[in-house]
Amino acid sequence: MDSKFCHKAWSSGFAGIKFPLLADFHPKGATCQAFGVWLEEPGIGDRATVLIGKDGKVLWAEAVTPAGFRNPSDLLGKVQELAQ
Questions:
Q1: What would the pLDDT profile of 28-60 be if each residue is shown by its tens digit?
Q2: I need a surface site. Which of 7, 15, 62, 77 has the fewest CB within 10 A?
Q3: Number of domains observed in the structure of the chain
Q4: How far is the C-alpha of 9 from the C-alpha of 21, rounded, in Å?
């Protein structure tokens, strides 16, 4: 649910990112709801990453709870693996 500005700042640390990042900032949570990771009671999205292929199909997904941790290097490795 980060904004496009947050994604731009995050991705600037990875010179190799050459793919778009989806921002689910407004309307708040619409994409989270579509992917089944919207947490209704707190009104937030689960901390999830979904990698989508050029054909629009989900290639890989992971949710780690709102307090969970994701390792950016591992995520970049997964993207590189799927790109082969």
A1: 788 889 888 899 999 888 888 888 888 989 999
A2: 15
A3: 1
A4: 11
pTM of the model: 0.69
Instruction: Give the amino acid at 36.
Output: G
| CA distances to 15, 24, 32, 83, 84 from 3, in Å | 20, 7, 13, 25, 29
**Contacts of residue 17, Cβ cutoff 8 Å, sequence gap at least 6:** 11, 76
Q: Which pLDDT does position 41 carry in this prediction?
A: 92
pLDDT tops 90 at residue 1: no
CB atoms within 10 A of CB 53: 11
**Structural domain of 48:** 4-83
